């Protein structure tokens, strides 16, 4: 058995700084590095969560580079394992991981603190036993950074075991500003429309041509659905799961309920039930393909059940796999605004007031912001609706209307008009 783990360790050399090879670190995710590097040097477990291919692995390698270059950590003191690589299929359980790590310690003769980076850790059965053991072992100096593609990575027993001893960060695909910088485009309508079309998946930006992009997205979608949902939850009705995925994509930004989807299936003579549809939607959001925005009663200060809105983690899925209609553009803009607010740490909900809908109520650390989003303010009726809904909110919190108009309108009754590329100025 020892020889088995020695062979795996030899494969690891290709991906670790002690192996002598220089790993690509990609575009520097400065916004995330600013958040995570202050925690390096603490015993807190750093947990990175987000959809597959959103950039978690690159961010891990950027943290490793930070440790090597800025903190002068000996390369031998870095243990990096990415379970998404088929080279490490043999590491299936926490016992395998334990044996591999002990083999690493013996072969590398490491002195001092060891930094463990475990990428896509959910693919290791009972990984939480390993992480809990080494993060709590105060007889040795360890520091752990783990990543996963499921929002419930730290649910249940693991969250209880690590209560107060971990920090979790959600990693999104490239923001508009990151996209513009990578593409060397100036902020403005032209680059924003390009972002609206292309999305922010890092690897997608390197692909040319519709066929290559479609192939990449189809492969990514299948990986997420098959590995993170079907295998994890033993799904028996894959066609229904795929149908729900398409339904939610077709209805981003529209109020949707489980009952609506069940009725949709019945209208097409397909069997379904409330419990199955509800579970499948939860699995799709757990895997970060979608985000759920619940309704929030502004007067009652409470969440409302029933309908919610769903937003894609990246619009490329909808744009390339289903296509775009002119009527979609307003909802797509809404999707991007939602993602930008979420990536800045806001809880984002759909506001309900006097039978009117406020697109977004964004809250964080006592800050409350209200938003209406539309593609263009190109009629008096639309202008009155977007500004009028916000005008009905009787408090002093900031209120904004966001649109893709060529011109910027003056403020109206304290309500500020912004183009989406100006949204970053608020933070």
Structure commentary:
- This protein has 427 residues and is of the alpha/beta class.
- It has two domains: 2-170, P-loop containing nucleotide triphosphate hydrolases (Rossmann fold, 3-Layer(aba) Sandwich), CATH 3.40.50; 176-426, no CATH class.
- 40% of the residues lie in helices and 18% in strands.
- The protein contains 15 helices and twelve strands.
- The protein has helices spanning 2-12, 30-36, 56-69, 94-108, 127-136, 157-161, 176-182, 189-198, 210-233, 238-250, 258-267, 274-286, 316-321, 329-343, 380-391, and strands spanning 45-49, 78-82, 114-119, 142-148, 166-170, 290-297, 302-312, 347-353, 356-364, 367-373, 399-402, 416-418.
- The strands form two sheets. The protein has a seven-stranded mixed β-sheet, with helices on both faces.
- Strand 2 (78-82), helix 4 and strand 3 (114-119) form a beta-alpha-beta unit.
- Helix 1 (2-12) packs across helix 4 and helix 11 crosses helix 12.
- The longest helix is centred in the middle third of the chain and has 24 residues, at 210-233.
- The termini are far apart.
- The mean pLDDT is 94.
Give the helices and strands, then pairings.
Layout (H helix, E strand, L loop, with lengths): L1 H11 L17 H7 L8 E5 L6 H14 L8 E5 L11 H15 L5 E6 L7 H10 L5 E7 L8 H5 L4 E5 L5 H7 L6 H10 L11 H24 L4 H13 L7 H10 L6 H13 L3 E8 L4 E11 L3 H6 L7 H15 L3 E7 L2 E9 L2 E7 L6 H12 L7 E4 L13 E3 L9
Parallel strand pairs: 1-4, 1-5, 2-3, 3-4, 6-8, 10-11, 11-12
Antiparallel strand pairs: 6-7, 8-9, 9-10
Helix pairs in contact: 1-4, 4-5, 11-12
């Amino acid at each position: 058995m020892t020889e088995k783990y020695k062979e795996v360790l030899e494969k690891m050399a290709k991906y670790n700084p002690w192996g002598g090879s220089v790993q690509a670190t990609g575009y520097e995710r400065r916004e995330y590095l600013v958040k995570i590097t202050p925690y390096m040097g603490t015993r807190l477990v750093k947990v990175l969560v987000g959809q597959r291919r959103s950039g978690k692995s690159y961010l891990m390698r950027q943290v490793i580079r930070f440790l090597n270059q800025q903190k002068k950590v000996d390369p031998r003191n870095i243990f990096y394992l990415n379970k998404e690589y088929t080279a490490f299929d043999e590491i299936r359980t926490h016992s395998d991981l334990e044996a591999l790590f002990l083999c690493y310690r013996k072969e590398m003769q490491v002195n001092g603190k060891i930094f463990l980076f475990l990428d896509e850790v959910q693919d290791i059965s009972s990984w939480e036993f390993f992480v809990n053991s080494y993060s709590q072992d105060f007889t040795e100096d360890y520091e752990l950074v783990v990543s996963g593609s499921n929002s419930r990575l730290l649910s249940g027993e693991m969250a209880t075991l690590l209560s107060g001893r971990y920090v979790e960060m959600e990693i999104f695909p490239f923001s508009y500003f990151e996209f513009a910088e990578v593409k060397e485009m100036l902020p403005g309508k032209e680059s924003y429309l390009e972002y609206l079309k292309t999305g922010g998946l890092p690897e997608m930006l390197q692909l040319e041509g519709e066929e290559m992009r479609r192939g990449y997205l189809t492969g990514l979608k299948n990986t997420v659905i098959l590995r993170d949902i079907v295998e994890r939850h033993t799904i028996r009705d894959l066609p229904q799961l795929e149908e729900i995925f398409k339904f939610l994509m077709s209805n981003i930004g529209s109020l949707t309920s489980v009952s609506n989807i069940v009725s949709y299936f019945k209208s097409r003579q397909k069997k379904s039930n409330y419990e199955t549809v509800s579970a499948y939607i939860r699995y799709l959001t757990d895997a970060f393909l979608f985000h759920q925005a619940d309704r929030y009663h502004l007067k009652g200060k409470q969440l409302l059940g029933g309908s919610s809105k769903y937003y894609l983690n990246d619009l490329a899925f909808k744009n390339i796999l289903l296509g775009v209609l002119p009527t979609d553009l307003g909802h797509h803009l809404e999707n991007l605004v939602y993602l930008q607010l979420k990536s800045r740490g806001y809880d984002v909900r759909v506001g309900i007031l006097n039978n009117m809908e406020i697109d977004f109520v964004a809250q964080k650390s006592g800050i409350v912001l209200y938003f209406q989003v539309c593609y263009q303010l190109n009629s008096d009726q639309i202008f009155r609706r977007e500004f009028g809904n916000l005008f009905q909110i009787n408090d002093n919190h900031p209120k904004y209307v966001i649109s893709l108009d060529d011109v910027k309108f003056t403020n109206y009754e304290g309500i500020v008009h912004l183009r989406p590329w100006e949204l970053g100025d608020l933070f």
